[in-house]
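Holo prediction. Input below; ligand is flavin-adenine dinucleotide.
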Amino acid sequence: MKDLVVFLKENGISFEENVDGKRLCSFRVGGCVKIVAKPQSSLQVKALLDYLDASGMKNKVLGRGSDTVISDEGFDGALVLLTELKGIKVDGDMLSAGAGESLASVASFACSQCLAGLEFAHGIPGSVGGAVYMNAGAYGGEISDVIVSCECYDRRSKSIVVLDKFDLGLSYRHSVLQDKGELVVLSVLFKLSNGEKTEIRERMDEYKSKRLASQPLEYPSAGSAFKRPQGHFAAKLIDDAGLKGYTVGGAQVSEKHAGFIINRGGATADDIKDLVSYIQMTVKEKFDVSLEPEIEFLE
Ligand SMILES: Cc1cc2nc3c(=O)[nH]c(=O)nc-3n(C[C@H](O)[C@H](O)[C@H](O)COP(=O)(O)OP(=O)(O)OC[C@H]3O[C@@H](n4cnc5c(N)ncnc54)[C@H](O)[C@@H]3O)c2cc1C
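Structure of the complex:
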């Protein structure tokens, strides 16, 4: 770890040591993360990931942590936070954004430029890179509808590559990035369409109102805990299984939206994990449906 600190200093990459995991994920759980490095450019990302791969040190790339549960034991390695990969540019109806930009900023910027297509993303609290990784979506829209290509760092070939939409293998909450851990999103190119600013803003406001009405946004969470199983809705299955309000420690199945697990206060990562397992077991027993978690556990 000392060598990494020297490397980070020599390369001008900002970092923090012994960071409370609760600061890094939207669930507000987790123990101590040894090192959090925040590269600010593609070159810094490349240099850092090359260093980590060569050293064999445990590491993980993270965006805004809104789909991630950090273990109570913390993370005995380096978290590479990509939130400093900033920048949004517009050229006609094409918009490019750094992987670390929040979806909210990108959607708002698109709106300010009278560009429609990203309204669905405005209320998703993730980064652009995390959204491609998950093919994030809401209210009938998803990243695959608007993405043209993305620039990635390929840790295996040690080169920056451009993947087009089809190379990304985007499907419901899935991308090829989940199968190929070596690809790290640096920036993304979207194709939007010209629209009326007021109408775009109205659609974003409408989705925001829907979220406020239906989701427990007053509690820390990672959004929907499970993917939608074929032919079903996870929230309905969980509700029908009588699990609304079911609690393990500080983690609870939201009374407002059974698809959400919330941190009622003082939840641990283990509480969330145990609750996920209990929900999976109960839904399987009652309806013979297997629920796959959408949230990721970082060990
Ligand atoms: C209140 C709430 C509501 C939500 N609503 C929605 C919703 O409507 N629709 C939806 O789809 N999701 C929703 N989510 C979940 C989450 O916001 C999205 O999945 C989002 O895309 C995750 O982005 P992130 O940057 O936070 O990812 P993180 O949690 O930081 O990371 C998730 C995964 O992505 C990988 N990753 C992150 N950045 C990169 C990168 N640059 N390159 C390669 N891999 C990367 C990480 O390694 C990790 O495996 C919600 C979450 C919350 C808390």
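The chain has a mean pLDDT of 97. That is the main takeaway for now.
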